[in-house]
Amino acid sequence: MGLELGFVTQTTMHYTDALPAATAMNADYVELLLDGHHERSTLDADAVAETATEHELDLLVHLPFGFDVGSPYEHVREGAIRELSAALETAAAFDARKAVVHASSDAWSPAWEAESVQGTIVDALAELEVVAGESGIELCVENVPGEWFGLAEFPRLFEATDVSMTFDTGHAYVEGYDAAEQAAFVAEHADRISHVHVNDVRTRTDDHVPIGSGVLDFGRIVRPLATATLSAEVFTPSYEYVATSLNNLRRQVEALDSP
């Protein structure tokens, strides 16, 4: 199977230690969170590229949070798109393959209809997709609970744009999808799901606990995917917990090839 394994850096993790740690874990890539000390204007793209080459790792990025691409207000929306576009250009400078983005808006729901805000988000994502494509990056939109596009609304994104999807297992569980229902969604949309954020849960909250310490069956969830990148996303500063997660995920993925 063409399933590659890596992990998302957390706010305490710097690429200078995350990439050597990834090599020790036998990861295929690292997904750099372009926020905090990895914010684009403070990041040395050449140094990132050199470090990745040294450790024979690919790079993905998670674009920064908190940008209102669906704002009904022109200047807010355009500023968000400009900043995310600049982050994509920085990611391209160190040859990132994929970029994760949230379909977000802080539009005040009592004042703005969902249909209108969702349409604005679709237009913004289509614009960002062009920027990403010109930079050689695959744009992957993540399902986030409480945002304007839950899992049930993703088919609209698929119909209106050519973006790929980042399927987040924990977020799906928060929305009420158990492992069987997640597997069914993945099977139905396998041609659009290029990337997966793999994180475990114990409750209907956004736990992001280490893989294997919660309730989800990841082998079942990702089985429909012939090719994809799978990022362990664990809320921890500990590379030991990340390594445990990646090893548990690797065992489940390798079991898929067993008769």
Explain what you see.
With 259 residues, the chain is an alpha/beta fold. The protein has a single domain, classed as TIM Barrel (Alpha-Beta Barrel). The protein contains nine helices and eight strands. It has helices at 15-24, 45-54, 74-93, 114-134, 154-160, 169-174, 179-188, 218-222, 239-255, and strands at residues 2-8, 29-33, 58-62, 98-102, 138-142, 164-168, 193-198, 227-232. The protein has an eight-stranded parallel β-barrel. Helix 3 runs parallel beside helix 4 (114-134). It is globular and about 50 Å long. The mean pLDDT is 95. One of its GO terms (molecular function) is isomerase activity. InterPro entries: IolE/XylAMocC-like, Xyl_isomerase-like_sf, Xyl_isomerase-like_TIM-brl.
Gist?
With 259 residues, the chain is α/β, with parallel strands linked by helices. The chain has helices at 15-24, 45-54, 74-93, 114-134, 154-160, 169-174, 179-188, 218-222, 239-255, and strands spanning 2-8, 29-33, 58-62, 98-102, 138-142, 164-168, 193-198, 227-232.
Keywords:
single chain, 259 residues, alpha/beta, TIM Barrel, 8-stranded parallel β-barrel, 9 helices, IolE/XylAMocC-like
Q: Which percent range describes the beta-strand content?
A: 15-25%
Strand order of the largest sheet: 1-2-3-4-5-6-7-8
Largest sheet: 8 strands, parallel, barrel
Question: From the coordinates shown, what is the CATH architecture?
Answer: Alpha-Beta Barrel
Please give the domain count: 1
Radius of gyration: 17 Å
CATH class type: Alpha Beta
Mean pLDDT: 95
- H/E element string? EHEHEHEHEHEHHEHEH
Weakly predicted, low-confidence segments: none
Work out the helicity level.
40-55%
- The SS-based structural class is alpha/beta
State the helix count: 9
Straight-line N-to-C gap: 13 Å
Number of strands: 8
CATH H level, superfamily name: Divalent-metal-dependent TIM barrel enzymes
Which topology does CATH recognise? Answer: TIM Barrel
| Overall spatial form | globular
